């Protein structure tokens, strides 16, 4: 793996004029790794452009610069050497604009990701499944030629942000010895740990806290003797508390933190069905497997899908049946 | 500091028959560092005894062995070489039994602590204020002679437990680069990070989560444009959810983590009045001052009192008036 990391580092040093893209609905790692790579390339004398067609979740605004683009024309792309795709499993999940896929950009792609189900769509594919975060891979690339790549305090903060958000603040099972050592190094490079923690964990919005409390009080459901819990989020509550659904990562983590639960889920109405986010507390209960059976995808511990169903009740029945099957499979092994 | 650490490591290697003590009401770091040191000494061929006169909090029972003592007789102490005090600022805070002080043991003490206000009561004092946890210091002592001190997976787990509990899971400002590197090393030594995180952070009781949610949904009140928030906890809810009120530290910390709040409080019926717990987010707003005015006491950021009043309404009025006065005083300075 180190050879491949060195190769990408050298490729990036040799070329210039990069386009950076990441997945749609970008989270802390997507944004942290993308803005960090943008900074590192620029700080080391390269031209680079970050394409982010979506509005960013509020809580990340303190960390990101405003020098990203929401649109790139074909004539601009013609002057660029490589498209670097970060944290994105497949071309159609890339956030490149309305209904577009990464393939539509018609660029040669360096595909950098840590998801094991990455579809290897690049000319170069640097997939590091044991990396906790895409940000960790970006760090490793920069670290491969430490005299050539500059990691500023701002870049270190962005990389640590990505790592903290993708490890649940060093709580998930992907919290490896390597990621701890890399985080130590980022702190030495003056990553602003205090600001990350304050903004990510200690700045909850009151109406959001009330929204979560009302969901737990009135909309929490249990099955499988309490081993599976889920919340259907009605649209009227989202409106009542003016919740920005871009900021709901914490809710499902809160559910996962309850004793005795093995799998938890959030459901929301979307298009002609119900969008489901799934989290597992234990690698034995693969929510990726559930999601894939329902035409979705993700990691063993965090996955998602869209259940097409006419009513909430039937979507819930489908979900509960799939969760039950996973529990039964593990039990019968 | 490294010289002093080496000196203590050598002293411990040279002698034998140790008594280990820690502070009363032991927390994760007190227990983690004490049991880890007990293991490390024993695994390296030494005799060691851990004195813990109190019942241990449930959540730590999975981590500790049962080979500790709740009482040590004088004749036993006579056969011991040194008393090692861990994580304890002063002799009277040591947990050595009912109304006793560490001085009553009449032993020569090796005083190992990371609190800057440690009273230097040992023959040897190894005070490391930049260590995040006493467990971090125990690791550094063992690491000073890695070929002689054995850190088993169980010891590594106990040390990581101490570090995780004293850094708030790597969220407090004491999360240094050093502690990240040490944690990486503990993971390599097979510390059971998964079990620590599961037991410490992912084992909230469902009925307790529902209790908190219902309090926020139905019993949260605001004043001073939302800068003061408080919750009155009705007894019937405590009964409905079978809540152990010893475990409610998280509720007021949750309130404090809400953006825009400067002072938060919990109120509960008690005797002929209302017990009030107060927290401040900012040292400028001293809740100790409010508590003292109401015949209570505490720290600037965390204090408590009992408001004698016939009705909740009049107790709330008194509390709100005192909070308002603090806000006005700070504003008018």
Short descriptors:
homodimer, 333 residues, alpha/beta, inorganic pyrophosphatase (n-terminal core), Diaminopimelate Epimerase, Chain A, domain 1, 6-stranded mixed β-sheet, 5-stranded parallel β-sheet, 12 helices, 11 strands
Strand order, largest beta sheet of chain A: 6-7-8-9-11-10
What CATH architecture label of the largest domain in chain A applies?
Alpha-Beta Complex
Give the oligomeric state of the chains in this entry, treating copies of one chain as homo and distinct chains as hetero: homodimer
Q: Biggest β-sheet of chain A, characterized?
A: 6 strands, mixed
Quantity of strands of chain A, as a count: 11
Low-confidence stretches of chain A: none
Helix-strand pattern of chain A, N to C? HEHEHEEEHHHHHEEHHEEHEEH
Counting structural domains of chain A, the number is: 2
Describe the protein's architecture and organization:
Chain A is an alpha/beta fold and 333 residues long. The first copy, chain A, folds into 2 domains: 2-201, inorganic pyrophosphatase (n-terminal core), CATH 3.90.1640.10; 206-332, Diaminopimelate Epimerase, Chain A, domain 1 (Roll), CATH 3.10.310. Helices cover 41% and strands 17% of the residues of chain A. In chain A, strands 6-7-8-9-11-10 form a 6-stranded mixed beta sheet, with helices on both faces. In chain A, helix 1 (2-14) crosses helix 4 (134-143), helix 2 runs parallel beside helix 4 and helix 2 packs antiparallel against helix 5. Chain A is globular and about 55 Å long. The A-B interface holds A 169-173, 175-178, 180-181, 183-185, 187-188, 193-194, 197, 201-206, 209-210, 212-218, 220, 226, 229, 254, 256-261, 281 and B 169-171, 173, 175-178, 180-181, 183-185, 187-188, 193-194, 197-198, 201-206, 209-210, 212-218, 220, 222, 226, 229, 254, 257-261.
């Amino acid at each position: 793996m180190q050879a491949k990391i060195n190769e990408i580092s050298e490729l990036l040093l040799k070329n210039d004029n990069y386009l950076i893209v990441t997945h749609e609905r970008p989270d802390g790692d997507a944004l942290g790794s993308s803005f960090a790579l943008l900074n590192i390339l620029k700080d080391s004398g390269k031209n680079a452009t970050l394409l982010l067609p979506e509005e960013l979740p509020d809580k990340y605004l303190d960390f990101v610069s405003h020098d990203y683009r929401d649109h790139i024309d074909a004539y601009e792309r013609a002057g660029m050497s490589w498209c670097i795709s970060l944290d994105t499993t497949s071309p159609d999940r890339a956030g490149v604009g309305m209904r577009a896929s990464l393939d539509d950009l018609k660029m040669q792609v360096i595909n950098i990701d840590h998801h094991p189900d990455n579809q290897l769509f690049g000319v170069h594919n640097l997939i590091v499944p044991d990396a906790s975060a895409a940000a960790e891979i970006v760090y490793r690339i920069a670290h491969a030629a430490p005299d050539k790549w500059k990691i500023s305090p701002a870049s270190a903060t962005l990389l640590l942000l990505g790592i903290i958000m993708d490890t649940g603040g060093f709580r998930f099972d992907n919290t490896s010895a390597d990621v701890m050592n890399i985080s130590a190094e980022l702190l030495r490079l003056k990553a602003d740990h205090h600001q990350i923690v304050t903004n990510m964990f200690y700045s909850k919005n009151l109406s959001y806290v009330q929204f979560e409390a009302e969901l737990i009080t009135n909309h929490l459901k249990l099955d499988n003797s309490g081993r599976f819990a889920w919340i259907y989020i009605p649209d009227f509550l989202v409106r009542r508390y003016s919740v920005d659904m871009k900021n709901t990562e914490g809710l499902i983590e809160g559910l996962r933190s309850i004793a005795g639960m093995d799998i938890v889920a959030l459901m929301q109405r979307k298009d002609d069905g119900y969008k489901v986010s799934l989290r597992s507390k234990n690698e034995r209960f693969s929510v990726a497997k559930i999601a894939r059976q329902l035409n979705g995808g993700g990691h063993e511990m965090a996955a998602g899908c869209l259940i097409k169903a006419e009513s909430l009740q039937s979507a819930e029945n489908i979900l509960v049946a799939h969760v039950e099957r996973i529990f039964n499979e593990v039990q019968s092994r």
